[in-house]
Amino acid sequence: MSERDDEFDDSAEPDESFDDSLSDEERAELDGAHPLADLSPFADGFEGTNIDDDSDFELEDSEYAQDAGLVYEELLARIGEQAPQPRLEATRRAVELIGDPQRTYPVIHLTGTNGKTSTSRIVESILRAYGLRTGLMTSPHLMRVNERIMIDGRAISNRALAENWADIRPYLLMVDAELLAKGEEPLTYFEALTVLAFASFADAPIDVAVLEVGMGGEWDSTNVADGQVAVFSPIALDHTQRLGSTIAEIARTKAGIIKPAAAIVSAVQTSDAQIALERAADLTESKLGFEGDAFELLSSAVAVGGQLISVRGLAATYSDLFLPLFGEFQGHNAALAIAAVESFLGAGSQALVMDVLAEGLATVSSPGRLQVIGAEPTVIVDAAHNPHGAAALAAALKEYFTFDEIAFVVGVLDDKDAAGIIGALAPVANRFYVTSSQSDRAVAPEDLVEIVRELHEETTDFDSFAEAMELARGWAAENERRAVVVTGSISLVAEALALADMEGWKP
């Protein structure tokens, strides 16, 4: 089963890149300042790097909140992630001018349609447990742009964000001028952010970077880096207007991250996607291992707070590992991550240290994916934004929770398969509260409700997300065996997180 982590649709508005991030990679509608907050999130004592005392850090970092906010404003002024430029030359020129920072550390590169973000987080957590200083770039962000650039497991500080931007900004403007002189668009939001991430990682410095593509792979900005290991989560139809109309076309685009003599590990794929990856591996003389053949998830059992998994890796079998994430698809993501780390640390022939692996898995988190954000009544958010992700969510709710009744608060973006999403959720739904996020691309509630009512009678639409949540929570509070699940787009999940924080819901 695959996750749904991504939505690469970043624009100057809250986004949607969740499995995952948009998640194909969808990364982003979370691009704009959060609709329920202004730039104040930068002053919330956000975690950063290089400071041992958190209280001292929070005090110091809050002084740079305004500077970080200005960086974000400059990024938002650029072409958003909903309109990526199919090119690498612009990013390549920018990193060349600042000394190719992406060549100063090894890279593990991840792509796919569903599961990328969670797999990236698991890979990073295992590497960090090994004592390596890690850099992690994922998309989109839920609350703060800082979340996209993680160093040693913590979002980049406001200070580092602002100072690294100040260092690279003159060179970005030089490239902008060169592009405009040739009649091309200046660097986009994602291109500039990628350069910022590479520079920040080099400045930290880090031992290894884990990079999640923004969209596709071949012409994605992150592909100016050479991945020692290429990782493929399940590939499905998404972003067809930019990546291709068939799985084979999309897989060929994603296979562009494979570099000569790289190690490749892949989740189970359709035959068309598998053929595309095998051809790319042959052309680059790379070693390719598929889930089910080279490695596999042997078992997954429900446990308090997550699941116990056993994995046959490339080099050894690892039994009874605790993974604090819900859903069998997360077990498959963990198996893929383990194979990726084995490929990186021991070329796939050296077993991981069991205690270290157990620590890495036990400390992983995946915000916005089957995340419980409220109790009494239970409120869960999940970034499912395509039918595959919605099906994974529905299955996980049945397997990992014991609710008698579930209400879904849903909102979908206009480029998503709304009928497919609702169709996957309907079998486990008792009612739907149809609404929308504040994204400019959100389907209007009065339009979405017509789609939902064709599949489920207990459906009501609301112009206000807050009102939909109030009534859904009121319904769920009548019976402790009821729950509310917010899903359909990453931007809606982001608004739910902000609302939960503002109203003080306690998980």
UniProtKB/TrEMBL annotation:
<keyword id="KW-0479">Metal-binding</keyword>
<feature type="domain" description="Mur ligase central">
    <location>
        <begin position="111"/>
        <end position="341"/>
    </location>
</feature>
<dbReference type="Pfam" id="PF08245">
    <property type="entry name" value="Mur_ligase_M"/>
</dbReference>
<dbReference type="InterPro" id="IPR013221">
    <property type="entry name" value="Mur_ligase_cen"/>
</dbReference>
<dbReference type="GO" id="GO:0046872">
    <property type="term" value="F:metal ion binding"/>
</dbReference>
<feature type="domain" description="Mur ligase C-terminal">
    <location>
        <begin position="368"/>
        <end position="489"/>
    </location>
</feature>
<comment type="similarity">
    <text>Belongs to the folylpolyglutamate synthase family.</text>
</comment>
<keyword id="KW-0436">Ligase</keyword>
<dbReference type="GO" id="GO:0005737">
    <property type="term" value="C:cytoplasm"/>
</dbReference>
<dbReference type="GO" id="GO:0005524">
    <property type="term" value="F:ATP binding"/>
</dbReference>
<dbReference type="InterPro" id="IPR018109">
    <property type="entry name" value="Folylpolyglutamate_synth_CS"/>
</dbReference>
<dbReference type="GO" id="GO:0008841">
    <property type="term" value="F:dihydrofolate synthase activity"/>
</dbReference>
<dbReference type="Pfam" id="PF02875">
    <property type="entry name" value="Mur_ligase_C"/>
</dbReference>
<dbReference type="InterPro" id="IPR004101">
    <property type="entry name" value="Mur_ligase_C"/>
</dbReference>
<feature type="region of interest" description="Disordered">
    <location>
        <begin position="1"/>
        <end position="53"/>
    </location>
</feature>
<dbReference type="GO" id="GO:0004326">
    <property type="term" value="F:tetrahydrofolylpolyglutamate synthase activity"/>
</dbReference>
<keyword id="KW-0460">Magnesium</keyword>
<dbReference type="InterPro" id="IPR036615">
    <property type="entry name" value="Mur_ligase_C_dom_sf"/>
</dbReference>
<dbReference type="InterPro" id="IPR036565">
    <property type="entry name" value="Mur-like_cat_sf"/>
</dbReference>
<keyword id="KW-0547">Nucleotide-binding</keyword>
<keyword id="KW-0067">ATP-binding</keyword>
<dbReference type="InterPro" id="IPR001645">
    <property type="entry name" value="Folylpolyglutamate_synth"/>
</dbReference>
<protein>
    <recommendedName>
        <fullName>tetrahydrofolate synthase</fullName>
        <ecNumber>6.3.2.17</ecNumber>
    </recommendedName>
</protein>
<feature type="compositionally biased region" description="Acidic residues">
    <location>
        <begin position="1"/>
        <end position="28"/>
    </location>
</feature>
